[in-house]
Specification:
alpha/beta, 41% helix
Length: 140
Amino acid sequence: MNVRGPLLLTRALAAKLANGARVVMVTSGLGALSGQPDSLVRKLQDPNLSFEDVLALCERPPGGYGPSKAALTALTQLFARELPEARVNAVDPGWVRTEMGGPGAPRSIEQGASSVLWACRITPDGPTGGLFRDGRAIPW
């Protein structure tokens, strides 16, 4: 669901996106490539990776939450190429004190949300195809 939903929704809306539209994929630091199996890293970094390849990964889940978020970042890069007039980026809000994050998470809801809102507000000539936290590029 971390990949299939965003892929299908973005594909469905692609023709309706105005010039300069923002598409923001909410990912996680657990999706960093450094924490993924080598076989998945090779697939996601393949320069010939396609939307169909990403969908195939959804059919055979690559191993849980972290790998699915890594696939979401790869999807972000595919959409950035397919939608050059839009700004398509992935944002990691960090470990946030929510029901999922728990009370011990170091970031407030406001901090996590502001990271996502930054990507919603970037200028039409801003970055695309990147991974960000708090408005700064972070390594995938």
